[in-house]
């Protein structure tokens, strides 16, 4: 509806959404009169496989960014588009410092959200309000051996947690998602126990970060 009534230049399109996913939404946008080439549509997804990327591009999207989203990359992409430069694929590296004991890489967070503390506060608020619900859903679906719903919840939870540069938990949730897809119930139960322990530690660190930001 917004596309039909507004002259929008660029869309950051979440790929996995309820009812209408990002690929189908893009196809519908491209089918609108005068929207074959504009707006510029960028996929946002935690699935970084080459096959998934190609599916997004085949649906009519123009570019592809993997979660966790980096503020600098978003800014750079917008500036490049606005300046009529050719957009190139962005790459993201995960660096784990030797002896790094904390779950949150605060140095990377400060770099990624420089000048955007208010956005980081929003991410924190979303996480603190919803993490227990995701854990409850995972526990319920695993107990029911509902592997499809377990995979979906894990995928969404991974995207939220990834915003905090918590590589260890992100990899743990990715493993949870993989085990759900392979229907490994014993592996799922063991991985979920580790997940709850890690998330408990993450909540403590995020609350500390929140206090620092809101002083």
Beta-strand content: 5-15%
Low-confidence stretches: 84-100
N- to C-terminal separation?
40 Å
How many extended strands?
3
What order do the strands of the largest sheet run in, or round the barrel if closed? Answer: 1-2-3
**Which structural class should the secondary elements be placed in?**
mainly alpha
Order of helices and strands: HEHEHEHHHHHH
Largest sheet at a glance? 3 strands, parallel
Task: Tell me the number of helical segments per DSSP (H or I, 4 or more residues long).
Answer: 9
**Rg for CA atoms:** 19 Å
Helix content: 55-70%
Whole-number mean pLDDT = 83
Sum up the overall morphology in one term. globular
Give the SSE map.
Elements (H helix, E strand, L loop, with lengths): L1 H4 L4 E5 L7 H10 L8 E6 L4 H9 L4 E4 L4 H12 L23 H7 L4 H27 L3 H16 L4 H15 L3 H29 L2
Parallel strand pairs: 1-2, 2-3
Helix pairs in contact: 6-7, 6-9, 7-8, 8-9
Q: Gist?
A:
With 215 residues, the chain is mostly helical. It is built from 9 helices and 3 strands.
Describe this structure in words.
Helix 7 (147-162) runs antiparallel to helix 8 (167-181) and helix 8 runs antiparallel to helix 9. Helix 2 (22-31) links the parallel strand 1 and strand 2 (40-45). The protein is mainly α. The chain starts with a helix and ends with a helix. The longest helix has 29 residues, at 185-213. It is globular and about 50 Å long. It has a 3-stranded parallel β-sheet with strand order 1-2-3, covered by helices on one side. It contains 9 helices and 3 strands; from the N terminus they run αβαβαβαααααα.
């Amino acid at each position: 509806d917004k596309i039909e009534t507004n002259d929008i230049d660029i869309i950051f399109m979440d790929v996995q959404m309820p009812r209408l996913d990002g690929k189908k939404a893009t196809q519908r946008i491209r089918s609108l009169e005068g929207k074959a080439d504009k707006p510029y549509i960028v996929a946002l997804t935690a699935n970084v496989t080459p096959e998934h990327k190609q599916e997004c591009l085949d649906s009519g999207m123009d570019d592809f960014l993997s979660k966790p989203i980096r503020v600098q990359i978003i800014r750079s992409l917008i500036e490049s588009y606005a300046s009529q430069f050719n957009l190139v694929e962005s790459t993201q590296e995960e660096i784990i410092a030797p002896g790094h004991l904390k779950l949150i890489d605060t140095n990377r967070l400060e770099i990624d959200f420089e000048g955007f503390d208010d956005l980081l506060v929003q991410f924190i608020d979303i996480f603190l309000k919803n993490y227990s619900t995701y854990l409850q859903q995972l526990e319920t679906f695993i107990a029911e051996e509902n592997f499809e719903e377990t995979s979906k919840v894990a995928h969404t939870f991974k995207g939220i947690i990834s915003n905090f540069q918590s590589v260890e938990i992100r990899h743990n949730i990715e493993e949870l998602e993989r085990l759900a897809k392979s229907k490994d119930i014993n592996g799922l139960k063991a991985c979920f126990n580790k997940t709850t322990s890690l998330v408990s530690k993450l909540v403590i660190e995020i609350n500390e970060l929140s206090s620092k930001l809101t002083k």
